[in-house]
Design goal:
The protein has about 750 residues and is an alpha/beta fold. It contains 16 helices and 27 strands. It is globular, with a radius of gyration of 32 Å.
């Protein structure tokens, strides 16, 4: 029977196998369609409206694809000429090395994988010969050379990755955080309450007994099918089989730390980001739960692991994005559903939470994707319907006092393709320069979108932490800022100790909550300047940004594209001897924000006289504090088209190489001059607050070639000088009638800065 089947199969194959004549015809068919396409393109692009200048582009258009095809043919020819044993193993192993082992862009993996394959091929080839001939390297010197070259290449590669690196930010090597510590209790220390713990959940969780049979309080489930896409296919089936429920029955589950006592107490929900769903993330905020509960605040760490990524999603590898899609809005919506459940309990006699929650004092904390989710929750809170599907009704309207975003993503979810609006909510976002996951400080994108419309006082604040990474804010994530296996590539030597990083979170988050829950505005200076908590914080470099609903902005470059006008109804900008002056959109490592600022540069090689920029307000403005939002520009101070004199051309290369390095190493200072309506002048140096540091580099990977991300980005720092400092220089200066603000760049030969805004508060 088998012989018959084999014979019939062979007969069938012989009949369908093309003959040489058929192959010739197929080749002619391909050539024909190619000539037709090339001919039509030549006619349409050159003959129909001929110009000689079009011909080079035509030949490039034809030549490049042909060259790529020939290169592919050559590579295939070389590959097929290799011995079968080597060819087979190369085909099996090369994709694993190039696609799975090395981080960064595709080219990084290709080149690094190819280099490793080449090194081990040389070592294997040489070792095979030497072993066969009992290490007779005298008769087989090429074999020895192959081993030496392979080992040397591997050694050089390992050294480049694992050797000690240059200091990324040399100006910070001996940096000491200046001490202006507030005469207040350290908000990061435990309070006087005894801490209790409990859980609430479905009671049906098949993976964790604390949410299953051992749960303290049982919850309802919610239908997330309108907000979560792609819970289907094989990966969806595997997800459902793992958890025991699908997208229509999402559980409301959390670990709760609470102060022992009657209450009512403020409530904070914290939610994790997109870690592997099987490696549960919700226990990782225990340090915050213990602290907050001891200080009279209930913390619930929300379980959203079931909508996290999973290795099993790889079964849908042909999908454009395996796993769930567009789920960040669901993360925020789930938080509001948790609050709805708790609101019901709070008003139910006999329930554990009955009367225990102060529903007028609520806040949200989110980490990574959870950091975007808390902003989404704040936006959804006041809506009556889901913006992407109005059939889903909302009924939330909670009194959210504050939102904290830890190393958040931004823009993964946009309601109706618009940036998420957050209005009249106190906002704090934090990020570390060693974040190996969300490497760009995307939280400032949401920070810039926080608006104030009501009469109540509200504020927004951002904090950038040198030495902090992504994972150490969560006790279960630790140093795993990237996917398993390639975490070896992360540079953990530059990280601050894990408890030090969590101390920053303890101090800042607790101070934030003291302000928004207990009206302890005396902690506000800490959110403006980390030096006000120097004795509470690790000694590292911080960049603070802050603004509030009382801010009186006189300049922010957002109203128009005319550089010579101010944001007041009147007023103009004039300059003297600036080498560069232009407006830019504010850029992060990954994104361009819809906010603008102005680049200002000076260089005495270009203009020998002192440079300045003058803001004539056009009217009198009163205030107690001058505030400027500033950053180094990280660019050359000379114009791109500047031509040097003949005598400078000889050492042009040396000067150009040192120009950027010079700006990167210098701390900048200049004179700020105020003028009142009577013409009285008073001045102070920027360094009354602090000198302006160069852009901070963040290099989370062991070697730069492992990661193509930019090492630095523009982050604005708040500089604050009291008007009284100017009055000490000139007692006649009238702080109630300020008419001009002038920056005089008289403290350095060159410099380049970015000015985001000026306010008089």
């Amino acid at each position: 029977m088998l012989k018959i089947l084999r014979g019939k199969l062979g007969f069938f194959i012989s009949k369908v196998t093309p003959s040489s004549l058929a192959w010739h015809g197929a080749a002619d068919g391909i050539l024909s369609v190619g000539l037709i396409v090339v001919g039509l393109f030549f006619y349409l692009s050159n003959v129909a409206s001929f110009s000689f200048q079009k011909l080079p582009a035509f030949f490039v258009w034809v030549g490049l694809p042909v060259a790529l095809g020939l290169a592919f043919l050559m590579a295939a020819y070389v590959l097929m000429s290799l011995p079968k044993r080597y060819r087979l193993r190369l085909a099996l192993i090369a994709p694993i090395l190039t696609l799975s082992v090395f981080p960064g862009g595709d080219t990084t993996g290709y080149f690094a994988g190819a280099a490793v394959l080449l090194a081990f091929s040389l070592i294997g080839a040489g070792s095979g010969i030497l072993l066969r001939y009992r290490f007779d390297y005298v008769k087989h010197p090429l074999a020895l050379l192959a081993v030496v070259l392979g080992v040397s290449g591997l050694s050089m590669g390992l050294y480049s990755v694992f050797s000690a690196k240059d200091i990324a930010n040399p100006n910070l090597q001996d940096y000491v955080l200046g001490d202006k510590t507030l005469a207040l209790p350290n908000p990061g220390l435990p309070g006087s309450y005894t801490v209790g713990k409990m859980t609430y959940g479905s009671g049906k969780d098949i993976r964790r007994s604390e949410f299953g049979e051992d749960v303290d309080l049982q919850t309802r489930s919610v239908d997330g099918s309108k907000l979560i896409d792609n819970w289907d296919g094989m990966s969806g089936w595997l997800r459902t089989s793992y958890w025991g429920f699908d997208v229509t029955e999402l559980p409301l589950q959390a670990r709760v730390w609470y102060p022992e006592g009657k209450g009512p107490f403020p409530l904070v929900l914290v939610v994790h980001g997109n870690h592997g769903m099987e490696d549960y993330s919700d226990p990782g905020y225990d340090y915050l739960g213990e602290l907050f509960a001891s200080r009279g605040i209930i913390l619930a760490s929300v379980d959203e692991n079931f909508i996290n990524g999973t290795f099993s999603a790889g079964v849908d590898f042909l999908a454009s994005r395996p796993g769930l899609k567009e789920e960040n809005d669901a993360r925020g919506w789930l938080l509001l559903e948790h609050l709805s459940q708790i609101r019901d309990w709070n008003s139910t006699p006999g329930n554990f939470f009955s009367g225990k929650i102060d529903m007028n004092n609520l806040a949200l904390i989110g980490h990574s994707r959870g950091g975007e989710a808390v902003g989404v929750a704040a936006a959804f809170n006041s809506l009556s319907r889901y913006p992407d599907d109005a059939s889903l009704e909302f009924d939330f309207n909670f009194n959210l006092k504050g939102v904290i975003a830890i190393a958040p993503v931004y823009g993964q979810y946009e309601p109706r393709e618009r940036p998420t609006p957050v209005t009249d909510v106190n906002y704090l976002t934090v990020h570390g320069n060693m974040d190996g996951d969300v490497q760009s400080f995307e939280g400032v994108g949401q920070y810039s979108r926080v608006g104030f419309t009501g009469k109540d006082y509200r504020f927004r604040s951002s904090l950038y932490i040198v030495g902090a990474n992504h994972g150490q804010f969560n006790t279960t994530w630790e140093n795993r800022d990237t996917r398993p296996f390639i975490a070896w590539s992360l540079d953990t030597s530059r990280l601050m100790p894990r408890e030090a990083q969590r101390d920053v979170a303890r101090v800042y988050f607790s101070a934030f909550l003291e302000i928004v829950f207990n009206d302890k505005l005396e902690y506000l200076p800490l959110l403006k300047d980390s030096r006000y908590g120097a004795n509470w914080l690790p000694n590292t470099f911080f960049i603070n940004q802050f603004s509030d609903s009382n801010e009186n902005v006189v300049i922010d470059f957002e109203n128009d594209i005319e550089l010579s006008t101010l944001d007041l109804d009147t007023g103009t900008i004039t300059t003297e001897n600036l080498s560069r002056w232009y407006e830019v959109a504010n850029e992060l490592k990954f994104d361009e924000l819809d906010t603008h600022s102005v680049v200002v540069a000076w260089d005495k090689e270009v203009f020998s006289k002192t440079a300045s920029i003058n803001f004539n307000l056009g009217k009198s403005v009163a205030g107690d504090v001058l505030v400027a939002s500033l950053s180094s520009a990280g660019i050359s101070s000379t114009p791109p088209d500047w031509e040097k004199s003949d005598e400078d051309v000889a050492d042009d290369s040396e000067k150009n190489n040192s120009a950027t390095a010079d700006l990167e190493s210098k701390l900048l200072d200049w004179t700020i001059e105020l003028v009142d309506s009577n013409g009285n002048r008073a001045s102070a140096l920027l360094s009354y607050d602090s000198k302006l540091y160069p852009l901070i580099k963040g290099i989370p990977y062991r070697a730069k070639f492992l990661d193509s991300t930019k090492s630095e980005e523009v982050l604005f720092r708040r500089f604050e000088i009291p008007i009284s400092a100017f009055q000490t220089v000139n007692a006649e200066f009238d702080s109630e009638a300020i008419t001009e603000i002038k920056f005089v760049f008289d403290q350095s030969e060159k410099g380049a800065i970015i000015l985001d805004s000026i306010s008089i508060d």
